[in-house]
Amino acid sequence: MRPKIIAFAVLLLLAGAAASYDWWHRPALTAIQAPAQMVSKEGPLAADRVFTDTKGTVVSLKDLRGRVVLLHFWASWCATCLAEFPDLLRAVAAQGGDVVLLAVSIDDDPSAMNRAIDRLVPPESEAPHTVWIWDEGKDISLRGFNVLRTPETVVIDGAGRLRDKIAGPGDWATMDFTALSG
Amino acid sequence: MRFLARTDVFFFAILWLTVLLVAGTLAQKTMGLYRAQETYFSSWIVWAGGIVPLPGATPVMGLIFFGLLAKLFLQPWRRERLGTIIVHGGALFLLFGGFLTAQFSAEGAMVIPEGGSRNYIAAYHARELAVTDVETGAEIVFSQRVLKDSAPLSDSFFPFPIKPISYFSNVALERREESAAVPDDLHGMARVFRMTDAPREREDEMNRAGLIFQLDGPEESENGRYAIFESMPIDQTITANGREYIISLRKKRTYLPFSIRLLDFEKQVYPGTNTPRAYRSDVVLAEDGREWPARIQMNQPLRYKGYTFYQSSFLQGPAGEEVTVLATVKNIGRLFPYIASIIICIGLLIHLVQRLPPLIGKAALLFLLCLPLGVPGQACAETHDGEGMTVLSYDSFARIPVLHEGRIKPLDTFARDFLTTFSGRASLPDMTAAAWMAELLFDQKAAYRRPVFDIPNPDVVSAIGLAPRKGHHYSFLALSQALRKNMPMLRSFQETPRESLSAAQGQLLDLYAKTLSYFEISRSLSLILPDFVVGDPELAKKLGMAPGQALTYQDMIAKRATLGGLITDSNAPGTGKDDEVLRLGFMLQLFDKDRASAILRIVPPQWNRGGEEWLSPWQVLESGAGSPETASFFETLNRAARAYRSGDAAAWHKETQTAFAESIAMAGQTLTPLRLFIEYHYNQLNPFHISLSLYGAAFMTLLVGGIGLRRQSRFAALVFLCLGALVHFAGLAARIYIMARPPVATLYESVLFVGLIGVLFALVIEWRGRNGLGVLIGALIGATLQFIGTRYAAEGDTMGMLVAVLNTNFWLATHVVTITIGYGCCLVAGVLAHLYLLMRLFAPEETDRLGALAGNILAAGLVALLFATVGTILGGIWADQSWGRFWGWDPKENGAMLICLWLIFLLHGRIAGKLKPVPFAMGMALTTVVVALAWFGVNLLGVGLHSYGFTKGIALNLALFSGAEILFVAGIGLALWRRTAGAREAGT
Q: Tell me, what's the ipTM?
């Protein structure tokens, strides 16, 4: 009879262990983790591109190293672009030369672009650190960056790396450029 | 006590439980899960035909429990019976836990909207009538039972006795006509609706209870008849003695000593699909002013104060807010199954080791030997430069990764899946799937004329006026023209509910949908196709291009303004040379429409956005995800398109190789190139076809040589079988690697897996017996299951992603693998039993071999029982983890239990001597039928939670198979019985 008693005792012990485990078991509370931060690792180096502005001056990305470059695509017929432009120009001016705006127009007709620029920046005033570029033949926009829609903005940091692309209007008034100047 | 311990009591109890199980499972088809469970499984008495009282599952299980207990105490304990004693102890434990759960557990659902808080759970089935004091929030409830009587309900809590008039389990609401006169004594909803009995829903949760009652309170104006029902949009309020009360009918509530607030509910889907990958609720648990945040997700419940909360499902609230549904259980018997399964597992293992040491030792050895063979070879990309090639090679093209159905796969798999959808096969007679895809993407003119669409039903062909073709394959061009002529008919079908369409009408709609996705795929790369050609030199000059030069949509975008001007100034269409201008404008507009093309998600995520969402080329432009990398990738594809169209094999090879490399570089760490490599070669080699042929070859060799007669043929067959098993194993290993999960999550995979288990087990038998028997069984099982597998593979993608509840490697690896190994062993035992019966009939003089065979059957049965039992219990634990209940009498669960009960019945019968060898072998032979029913058959019922395996067209095959098996076994049984009877007569 002894083995039976032992076996029975073992079973009882198991049951007791199970019950006490359940009784004492603290709630399995897992802390809520903050959503994973967007990992923005450093992008690839931007190819050294050369742009010619509306007045014929040549600007190269290489010469702009050390400054944050906003490669901004817009069009004269794009209402969203025109609406956000004043904010953008103010934000660039406020950075006092740490940020350069390359405003690339994808207009088919350069005169329409010029009219729009005149309205954005009246002749008596000026837009500092801003380079106006006409993308004739869509070489920069479509073939270079696959940009079809406006506004889109490519952000290039001080080390000349492609950091991000903002599709649609940006929140220029509150944008923090300090992390990008590197 | 002696009576309880008798073997035949146990024997018949098990048999009766088996019968109840089958009846109850079948009944779920008609009466739904809950009522079938009440009638058959949790009842004391089952009324057969409504008249004859028969014992229900509860007393039978009680009988088994006490029988086992008596047996354990009465019989002497000896060391060699250690295993069985432990197993039976575990079974007792399990039954006792089941009893505790049935008697003392509480379950329900907690439904919380985002931002809301709840401190009660609502029962699934029981209803109650609640009277709530609006001011204080205090309430009193009456259970469903008293609502069915007509005795008035009263309490000092409220001053108006409520007299139930009629209670409806499921109520139908019928709006009263506006003009009809409404009796004056009706109040509230009763003035709006007339309530009648509706038929009970199959899913009990869908029923809406209703109640009509009479009120006799102090306020004369409030007295009269009222109608209330569950989830009423407006509360029924009563004012009495200056206080306001709400009377409501609702699911029975159990209040908790704490509350749970839902912060956020999240549903994750696989990228590019609507298949849910995971559900998650972030909640805050509050008690006595203290708060804890917690997260509840699939397979990861929250336990607190004896209650367990499981992520069960979710709803969309009326205002679009997300509402989580937490299944809540309080169960003191919760841990019993866990312990029982461990005890039973240990006991069965000890029993097996004691009885069958050589078998176990050798099986383990064989498994260990097989394992290293599955290590996949190193990947190496082919790097020949393509010089001097004349035929287009699709090697690199086919390996370009694409996101489809939530998984990154090589373009080859993508092409095979779609080609299978369109044409019913994974390749065309004269081209591979990859070649077809290249044609579809790069050369639509040829692709649209290629007969690809398989329309097997002649009714569909004639309905849209197509000219019937031999081989019933039709080109997109012919089909789309025919469909366009029948658009009004198609629209009318689309507006009709699917179930009221005929088979042919439904197929026609499917066909229409297929042509739409075919067209969408064909336009995936239209962005970079050199389709714009201008012949007229003058026009070409105006547009700034060379005459005859082929430009892409991208190129044309830059010329859009110029072209627009030309169109404005052009002559009317049909007048001559300006037609080309108009054609270009028209084409540009047509191409604009391709922007919606989203099937071919071939571009990895850009700009480090950390997402998993791959995009189609058009989506890249539309969503602003374009980058220098995508631009370069599209340029490469453009050059590949030009090479394809000019038939330049060397350039094609170079460009597709570049495209592959660029795509891998863009994908970076989100993708493992080795997986693509293995999947591509898995597709190319088709390992399961090879192993099917090898199994077939083994079988044929044996037939030619005669079983066990000639050593050479037996050896050759053994070699074929081993090779087949190797290839089979390698194929499964490749799937495991590609999918990164155990190979048993779908019905297709389980067929493959069970096949391999059967073959391996048969090899063990061959190892022991060395007489060709194992080879024969292995070849039979391997070939049959592989053949069934090819049928499933023909249904399309065999590597789909898993819905949330299945998406857990741990349980797939334990429960499903164990239970499918059980299936495999059952099949081996079944085939052995067939052979035994045949030998018994045709070669009864070979008593030695018959004896050995009988021993093998018993051994195989024991091994099968081990895996089936442990697998079933593990399944219960999984269900407990994810749904909060160990056992729900769901068809698939019942199927697994059926196998266990059947094996327990047979083995106990045999071991106790109740079953003679022949009836035992007959029973074991029928195990194949039981397995087939549990594996495939239960899916046909179409009820329950295991809805992953629903499949069409197997009912007939299953019926044929079961019928043939039963006839076979019965026939042999009859023949043997007559022979014995004859011998007995001759003896007397």
A: 0.77
